[in-house]
Task: structure prediction
Amino acid sequence: MDLGIAGRTALVCGASKGLGLGCAQALAAEGVQLTIVARTQEVLEHAAQAIRGSTGVSVTAVACDITTAQGRAQALAACPTPDILVTNAGGPPPGDFRDWERDDWIRALDANMLTPIELIRATIDSMMAQRFGRIVNITSSSVKAPIDILGLSNGARSGLTGFVAGLARKVAGHNVTINNLLPGAFATDRLNATLAGTAKKQNIDLAEVREQRRGTIPAGRFGEPAEFGAACAFLCSVHAAYMTGQNVLLDGGAYPGTF
Result:
């Protein structure tokens, strides 16, 4: 299927590895010109070179902390009017809410709620003016099924979800869509950190925790970033113009609900 986005421009955050990289690779395969953002220059540039080599598209790498005003300014200076925006930032650490202070909550909100909102605010008017825009926020399956040790993430990402629900309806008439992608357990560093936190909390072997988690997934495996990226690319396509304000869950069937 031709997604109809060749030649478009995209700003993809957290794109040096994991799910963000999967999204960047999938968009590049469709001919989208990229600006990719992450904190670590060496890892980010390696990802950019790999994408250029495999697809031939233009890739600008901006090493910055997207959760800061300075970092967002750097990213937007490189790509001020993207056709496609993929927001993504590392989730806050796991733990017990009794141990979290106000500053912990503020950092979580800054990274996983306020940063996406600021990026949307900076780019959505140009999307509306040209009558094309696709915004995809990488959130978490915890928005639908909270994970007890990820309370900071549960709260911050749910706040973003509520905000998007209202805004998506206001801009839909301009051919601008905003959707959220909710990953379950994917084979990423984030999953490894979460499993390690569980193992420490329960004082059991990490390999045992990994197998227990795998056993809760009807698909019988962890997801791969490439398949997550494919879902993102579709949401950014011309074929998804009638799909907005949605929370799309990719979790191998782990969520047990009907709705």
Summary: The radius of gyration is 18 Å. The mean pLDDT is 94.
